Amino acid sequence: MDLKPVTHVLFDMDGLILNTEDLYTIGFQKVASRFGKEFTFTLKSRIMGQQSEEFAASIIEGLDLPLTVEEFLTETRLVFQELFPECKIMPGVERLIRHLHQHKVPIGLATSSSKLTYDLKVQKHTQLFDLLKYKTWGSSDPLVKRGKPYPDIFLVAAAKFPDNPPPEKVLVFEDSINGVRAAHSAGMQVVMVPDPRLDRTLAPEATLILDSMEDFQPELFGLPSFSNISPISTI
């Protein structure tokens, strides 16, 4: 592995910080079931990281659903209004975010979610997400012209850091193939924490692939080691 020191960190959200990818699967399958279709993991892998209208169009085409993009989004939003507020933090993530914040490492959020769905997802985790000072919501930000796997969201997110770091100094955490490709296209290193069902050979652009965020060693990228501080309290 050719790992280089970084100074700034960007986090994806769905499936990386929060377990919302599981909730997306429930919602999409509920719609697909009405038409006798199955929302497969293969299709899920293709759409992860896309913006709202993009993934809706991909699912409609992939499953041949007799719905418009707006109809699909309207129907799934009703499901997600109930599911998203119950989402949980993924293992190891809170520890890392609090650690980086305590050591004054600039950290930000780069999610394809809209601001509306973001607010639904984080309502029980606002104290943690407040630590991610610089936020980009891909489906709501007019500067993000294209969703992942295009680099737009990470370039926009990195530009929000006041000192405007070069891409090679930014480390991205992702769980999806599209996210990994987007970060790589932006010229950034990317740590992937994928769904265990994912074929890892499909993400050759990943700088490092981990089974869990609990396995991440910050010092590998020149960041402060966990051993440098006393245990961090959680919410």
TrEMBL record:
It comes from the Eukaryota. The keyword Cytoplasm does not apply. It catalyses: psi-UMP + H2O = pseudouridine + phosphate. Signal peptide: none annotated. Its EC number is 3.1.3.96. One of its GO terms (molecular function) is metal ion binding. Its cofactor is Mg(2+). It holds the Pfam family Hydrolase. It is an enzyme of class 3 (hydrolase). Keywords: Hydrolase, Magnesium, Metal-binding. The keyword Hydrolase applies. InterPro entries: HAD-like_sf, HAD-SF_hydro_IA, HAD_sf, PGP-like_dom2. Belongs to the HAD-like hydrolase superfamily. CbbY/CbbZ/Gph/YieH family. This is pseudouridine 5'-phosphatase.
